[in-house]
Specification:
Rossmann fold; 6 helices; 213 residues; alpha/beta; six-stranded mixed sheet; 29% strand
C-alpha cells in the first residue's frame, strides 16, 4: 500500500509546495516548527484544501485539482491522531475505542478491538473515564480509536509533543509495536530527531514549505 502527495498552498506570505511518495510502514515528516508539516497532514485528511495538486492513497484519488476531485474527510478513510488525545470525555475508554469501529461497516474492517487493545496495552483501562487517565494512557487510547476505524492511512501530528519525557518513553514502544503490526502507511510529523531515529523507516525533510530530503 502506498500514497502519493503533490500539493501547493499559499497562506499570506507562506507558500507551500510539497511532493513525495511513501509506502507501508512509518514515514517521518521531519522539520522545524512552522515548516508546513501539519498543513500537509490537514490537506491529506481533507480539512484543508490545496490550491493545486493531487493526493492518492492505494490508488484511490482523494484530491485532484485538475479532475475536480475533493473527497469529504469522512470518505477518505484516513485516521488522524493529534498532539492532544481529544477523547470523548463523557464516554468510557471502551466506548471511545468502539465509537469509530461501530461507524465502520463490517466489510471495511480489518482491525479487531481485542487485538488492538492488547497491542496497545490498554485492557485495564476499558471501564475508566478519559479524565482519570495519564497523558500517555490517553494517547494510547486515541491511537486505538483511530486504528479501529480501519483507516487506509494513519496521520500522527506530533503525538508525543504534549508529554513529559517519562510519558514519551512509556508510549514509544507501543507506537513501535503498532507500526510493525498494522500494515498501513503511517505519516508521523515531528521535529524531534530521536523520534525519527527510533521510529521511522523513511524520512521526508521539510523546511519553509519545501521538501529538503
Amino acid at each position: 500500500m502506498s500514497f502519493d502527495v503533490d500539493v501547493e498552498l499559499r497562506r499570506g506570505d507562506f507558500a507551500l509546495a510539497v511532493a513525495f511518495q511513501a509506502s507501508t510502514g512509518l514515514t517521518a515528516l521531519f522539520g522545524p516548527s512552522g515548516a508546513g508539516k501539519t498543513s500537509v497532514l490537514n490537506m491529506i485528511a481533507g480539512v484543508l484544501k490545496p490550491a493545486r495538486g493531487r493526493i492518492a492513497v492505494d490508488g484511490q484519488v482523494l484530491f485532484d485539482s485538475v479532475a475536480g476531485v475533493n473527497l469529504k474527510p469522512e470518505h477518505r478513510k484516513v485516521g488522524y491522531i493529534f498532539q492532544d488525545a481529544r477523547l470523548f470525555p463523557h464516554l468510557s475508554v471502551r466506548d471511545n475505542l468502539l465509537y469509530g469501529y461501530k461507524l465502520t461497516g463490517a466489510a471495511g474492517r480489518y482491525a479487531a478491538p481485542d487485538h488492538i487493545i492488547e497491542v496497545l496495552g490498554i485492557g485495564a483501562l476499558l471501564e475508566r473515564q478519559p479524565g482519570s487517565l495519564s497523558g500517555g494512557e490517553q494517547q494510547r487510547v486515541a491511537v486505538g480509536r483511530a486504528i479501529l476505524t480501519s483507516p487506509r492511512l494513519l496521520l500522527m501530528d506530533e503525538p508525543l509533543a504534549s508529554l513529559d519525557d517519562a510519558r514519551k518513553q512509556e508510549i514509544l514502544p507501543y507506537i513501535e509495536q503498532l507500526r510493525d503490526d498494522v500494515k498501513i502507511p503511517i505519516l508521523y510529523v515531528t521535529h524531534t530527531r530521536a523520534e525519527v531515529d527510533r521510529l521511522a523507516a523513511a524520512v521526508i525533510g521539510i523546511e519553509n514549505g519545501r521538501v529538503t530530503s
